[in-house]
Amino acid sequence: MDNHVMNTYSRFDLTLVSGHGPWVTDDKGDEYLDFVSGIAVNCLGHAAPAIVKTIEEQAKKLIHVSNLYWNEPQIQLAGMLAERSGLDRVFFNNSGTEANETALKIARKYGYVKGSGSKNKIICMHDSFHGRSMGALTVTSQEKYRAPFRPLIGEVYDAVFNDLDSVRALMDENVCAVILEPVQGESGILPATAEFMAGVRELCDQYDALLIFDEVQCGMGRSGQLFAYQTYGVLPDICTTAKALGGGFPIGAVIANDRAAEHFVPGDHGCTFGGNPLACACGVTVMEELFDNGVLDNVNAMSAYLFEKLEALKASYPEKINLVRGMGLLVGVQMKEGYKSGVQAGALANKLLLAGAGNEVIRFLPPLNVTKEEIDAAVARFEAAVAAAEKAE
To answer: For residue 276, is pLDDT > 90?
Structure first.
């Protein structure tokens, strides 16, 4: 059969047809341990009973209505996110890229109001990743993504992640926003330092600029807190989230304080599907699972266990594994130069799914309700892949 899907991904030769928990089954009947989780999306695992029940019940009542009207799941989820984030207002859309586009528009509108059109500069970080649409791509400071699509939007400037002086050098009264990931994901699972986070917050306050944290990958419990910024004690003006927010169902959100949101008025933005009852009902269920059913507590316990296991593996294979870093259940194993692709392929051969990242990093992104036994199985399969790479040297 011809395949008419556009060639925009380098896919593994694997067709998945079903799943349960951290397990997926392909069209040949083989079962794999999935520590990709849809790239940090399936926070409760595949076919999570709570999500399945929510979809069934909500779909029987109301799937979609226009934002010309209110719907109850949207109001409920917005309240839960505001209360738990320390922010005030929520705009719903469908993805992380859309959330970041919205955040950039809020920042530009804020600058327009505050600076009569001249306050329009945005500072982003080298090696960041914020999405592939034109605005999000512009603040994705990796030339391999930007180059084919220039010219991008203007007045965007690149600073160096975890280098406060590089941000300070770009700051002036015409900066409307700084955007960064508290944990850089696609570039290799690199957490911000506490000094950097606090320093950027201080600079934004000094120059009346909005601080935007992109928590599309590191948010929604993956860090061990609802949002990674909460581990630093630094509150942004805007936080973007998506991925795990719907437990597998597409939804994104922009959470902002009143200072940022008050200038975003009817006509400034919209989203046809954003905030639909079905997506928001899934988001409510995820929040309940995180806080009421112990999933967030499990992240912290299993994070310590996974790091312990991977550090022991690093000690056993010092010529193959360079370091282990990350936060919560967002964990990166940096391989020595040239080993990442072989080990990732070896993991697949051992029926373990892992995601790659930049700088020779392999990501471990298990569901947030993962067990010790599942971690043991994943690390054993990963070790087999590392050992095979050593034998093939």
So the answer is: yes
> Superfamily for 16-34+294-391?
Aspartate Aminotransferase, domain 1 (3.90.1150.10)
Domain regions of the chain by residue span: 16-34+294-391, 50-292
- Given a contact cutoff of 8 angstroms between Cβ atoms, the answer to whether 335 and 322 are in contact is yes
Question: Among residues 11, 210, 23, 10, which one has the least CA distance to residue 120?
Answer: 210
Q: Provide the pLDDT for residue 393.
A: 46
* pLDDT score of 256: 98
Nearest-angstrom CA–CA distance, 25 and 15: 9
Closest CA to 298 of 320, 327, 328: 328
CATH topology of domain 50-292: Aspartate Aminotransferase; domain 2 (3.40.640)
Residue type, 334: Q
**DSSP labels, 189-247:** -EEPPHHHHHHHHHHHHHTT-EEEEE-TTTTTTTTSSSSTHHHHT---SEEEE-GGGGT
pLDDT of residue 117: 81
Maximum Cα–Cα distance across the chain: 64
Residue range 108-147, pLDDT digits in tens? 999 999 987 899 999 999 999 999 999 999 999 999 999 9
Q: How far apart are CA 268 and CA 287, in angstroms?
A: 29
Report the pLDDT averaged over residues 39-43.
Answer: 98
For the stretch 324-351, pLDDT in tens is 999 999 999 999 999 999 999 999 999 9
Task: Give the three-state DSSP class for 386.
Answer: helix
**What average pLDDT score do residues 151-155 get?**
96
Q: Distance (Å, rounded) from C-alpha 319 to C-alpha 24?
A: 32
Under the banding of pLDDT at 50, 70 and 90, the label for residue 8 is very high
Q: What angle do CA 35, 39, 43 make, to 5 degrees?
A: 70
> What strands, in cross-sheet order, belong to the sheet with 355-357?
321-327, 330-335, 361-364, 355-357
Report how far residue 99's alpha carbon sits from residue 82's, in angstroms, rounded to the nearest whole number: 16
DSSP 139-193: T-B-HHHHGGG-S--SSEEEE-TT-HHHHHHH--TTEEEEEE-SEETTTT-EEPP
